[in-house]
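Aim 2, interim progress: modelling of the magnesium ion-bound target.
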Amino acid sequence: MDKIAEKTVDKKDNNQEEIYLSVTIPVYNEEENLPILYEKLKKVLDNLGYTYEIIFIDDGSSDRSWEIIKELAQKDPHVVGIRFRRNYGQTAAMSAGFEHARGKIVIAMDADLQNDPEDIPKLLQKLEEGYDIVSGWRKDRKDPFISRTLPSKIANWLISKVTGVHLHDYGCSLKAYRADVAKQLDFYGEMHRFLPALAKPLGAKVTEVPVKHHPRKFGKSKYGISRTFKVILDLILVKFLLDYRTKPFRVFGGTGIILILLGFLILAYLVFVKIFFGEDIGDRPLLLFGILFVLSGIMMLSTGIIAELITRTYYESQGKRPYIVKEIVRKDYKD
Ligand code: UDP
Ligand code: MG
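Predicted structure of the complex, ligand included:
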């Protein structure tokens, strides 16, 4: 190592303690759970011996959650509290947690004590084996079967099939991420459960480990069965983003051209029978189909062109690239 590089390392060591581990926790009306969760987490994290921070994101709670978080942050410098102006949902809270995380590794978990902080070392160990995302798998799930566990089984099977990232338990919030991967993910809606799939284009290595799961003791679950529909919609979007995000014209353009061709064939056939057999075509349903196919094909084509332009704006306005460099090797190159 040359001198300049050595100095940079020194400076970092003296001036600021680097945080290794950031634990991010979305909180929505979890006043009974917070103090217990904090004690449990603290015990596990102190034992691990890494530098760490615990980030609570209060997602517009109406109970005493924020007061509790504030108290914790005032007495323990490891605790960071972020408060939303209103309830934006778990996905937004997680996203805010990732954005504010200073650690090299980010752990996400729920505030409701259904995840167990004691599983964190297990996740970290797996991460150190070279994975980028380690997802918890609630092998022995403690939720009602018909309303929660069964729909979740079907959803996991479907998501795995569609995205090609095979996990038993997408819905488990307890996951460990390398921060450079976590910070590259942008997610909206209910998409936090799809993060391992969304990380696929980044070339992230994903795995899972069985974790403990406890029944909810305090407070209520914030979701019901209606979540299933949102998840299905999000899945369609995720599939699209995974396969065509950088080339939307392929989907729209492709379908558009097929429709136009079909439409032309139908119309050509009608013209043929009209001219050669003198048949009346004005009241034939086929005429309607022909016109409809051509028109919707043209619309598809133009949607594809617009989508393509938007994609370019998305990448270029944010200085993003449609690829991600893992490392660069060059003589004299310092990162
Ligand atoms: N949560 C949130 N905002 C919401 C709903 C939930 O921050 O609008 C938090 C909640 O406090 C908990 C986590 O997200 O820490 C998971 O919520 P919940 O336990 O209700 O989900 P379930 O375990 O039933 O899937
Ligand atoms: Mg829960």
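DSSP finds eleven helices and seven strands in the chain. The chain has two domains: 3-243, 248-316.
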